[in-house]
Amino acid sequence: MDFLSLAQKYKTPLYVYDLDRIKKQFLSFKNAFSGRKNLICYALKANSNLSVIHTLAKLESGADCVSIGEVRRAILAGVKKYRIIFSGVGKSDEEIYEALKLDILFLNVESSGELERIETIAKSLGKKARISIRVNPNIDAKTHPYISTGLHQNKFGVDKETALKLYLYAKKSSFLEPIGIHFHIGSQLSDLAPIAMSVEKIAEFARSLLALKIDLKFFDVGGGIGIAYDNENTIALYDYAQAILGALKGLDFTIICEPGRYIVGESGYLVTKVLYEKHTQEKRFVIVDGAMNDLMRPALYGARHRIKVYRQNHPQSDTQNQIPDTPMQAESLCDVVGPICESGDYLAKDVMLPPLRAGDLIVFENAGAYGFSMSSNYNTRKRAAEVGMEAGKDRLLKHRENFADMVNDELEILYGDTNGSD
């Protein structure tokens, strides 16, 4: 990929997505379950660009959404309503109302209080609400604590005892229709064992529900398969699918999976430009035009992304950060940091890089998931442009924000004027 040309054409910081690879990842996931009824619901929280979602919608992807905004995005991008599920612990009455009006596939229920609100709103609409209940298997996903969701200490889902009460209540209700069961134990999972244990545990519970004449049709295993950011172990997709299929043997469920990171993570790049270097008595800093508002993962999780350096007209070609066609220069330890006024504003810590000049590029790989979608305007910084690569051609997916985009609403309220300029 010609990052130098893309940076010149679209400026930096810049997100670039390989749409062909995204399609390949999605189809590999779907094909892993081809022997069974399945619905692959892409998790929009990973990357909610409409063009990315539309690319997947054309492949008959569903959508896993955690806000009514994401539901709207999925529909705008062409995802069929009957392939959309709505999850999350804090759905407002307005969101529940709109989701029921839109007639999406079902809502994942996370608490007894939420179930009561769904029933009340469904009654006001004179319709039955299709629901699934998120059951917390209390199994350690062995991932970062910020993205672990399957333990009783986490805010997600309910324990089996509570779930049983909710299913029995829903079965008797004239305005609730329990059609699915759901679990999700965490994100960036690199060990199959906790997933397999969770599937076995929830499948056993599902069998007991069927015995009680609760007519479940969908078994939602969540998402969470990790990718290799920095040489982590990864789960083979075949092994993942076989563990799920084996546990569900004899059960006539449609299997729902909610992959996000696996579909888009390795297909995205954040392209940043070196502004200059700074040396103190104890530290070398490479200062770039990208910052924690563009890529939050390193500051939030201590996450590491593989990086490559591109010097003007001399793209790097190997993994050791040696720059071709220049004399060998000694690498040294450095932090790659941004312009934001926070000590936590770094994109890479303690990495070995050669001496860099203003205008050189540093590209952060595997940035397609939880990159732009977690970006912000902190320090009144413009969010990056997004570009897609497909069949060897680039196209703009989202314009870079300008100053007017950030202030026009406030100006209108303050002065009755929208005269912001870039």
Describe the structure.
With 422 residues, this protein is α/β, with parallel strands linked by helices. The chain folds into 2 domains: 156 residues, Beta Barrel (Lyase, Ornithine Decarboxylase, Chain A, domain 1); 246 residues, Alanine racemase (TIM Barrel), CATH 3.20.20.10. Strands 1, 10, 11, 12, 13, 14, 15, 16, 17 and 18 form a 10-stranded mixed beta sheet that branches. An 8-stranded parallel β-barrel has the order 2-3-4-5-6-7-8-9, surrounded by 7 helices. The two termini are 30 Å apart.
Layout of helices and strands:
Blueprint: H1 3-10, E1 14-18, H2 19-32, E2 38-43, H3 50-57, E3 62-65, H4 68-76, E4 84-86, H5 93-102, E5 106-109, H6 112-125, E6 129-134, H7 160-172, E7 176-182, H8 192-211, E8 218-220, H9 237-247, E9 254-257, H10 261-264, E10 268-279, E11 284-288, H11 297-301, E12 307-311, E13 314-315, E14 332-337, E15 346-353, E16 361-364, E17 385-390, E18 393-398, H12 403-415
Parallel strand pairs: 1-17, 2-3, 2-9, 3-4, 4-5, 5-6, 6-7, 7-8, 8-9, 11-14
Antiparallel strand pairs: 1-10, 10-11, 10-16, 12-13, 12-16, 14-15, 17-18
Helix pairs in contact: 5-6, 8-9
